[in-house]
Amino acid sequence: MLPEYIVFGLTGIGLFVIGLRAALVQAAALARILAINVAGTGIFLVFVTLAYRGHDAAPDPVPHALVLTGIVVAVSATALALALVRRLPATPGEDGDD
């Protein structure tokens, strides 16, 4: 059985790959924004996994601080992206509307 830090690291890499693929493939702006958030969550999970030093040692605090800062930045960037998407004019032919 794999150690849990390897499972968490592989899960983070998987989330990043899924989010990146969806961000490149999806046409809808909301789907792209959500996909970028999924990719960011994968990166956060990898950072937390890299901070692990073992059962007896304390984790490295620098990646944890980066993840906390990244969460704040991701929330504000998502809010900005959603506000910008709402202001985009509707383009004829997009999403099946003609």
Polypeptide structure, described:
This protein is elongated. It is mainly α and 98 residues long. The mean pLDDT is 90. The chain has a single domain (4-86), classed as Helix Hairpins, CATH 1.10.287. The chain has three helices and no strands.
Low-confidence stretches: none
The fold-level CATH name is: Helix Hairpins
The CATH architecture: Orthogonal Bundle
Rounded to an integer in angstroms, the radius of gyration calculated over CA atoms is 17 Å
Q: How much strand content do the residues show? A: under 5%
Mean pLDDT: 90
Approximate shape: elongated
Fraction in helix? over 70%
Q: Describe the biggest sheet?
A: none
Total helices: the number is: 3
Domain count, please report it.
1
CATH class categorisation: Mainly Alpha
Order of helices and strands: HHH
Query: Pairing-aware structural class of the strands and helices?
Result: mainly alpha
Descriptive key words:
Helix Hairpins, 98 residues, 3 helices, mainly alpha, 72% helix
Compact summary:
This protein has 98 residues and is mainly α. The protein is 72% helix and 0% strand.
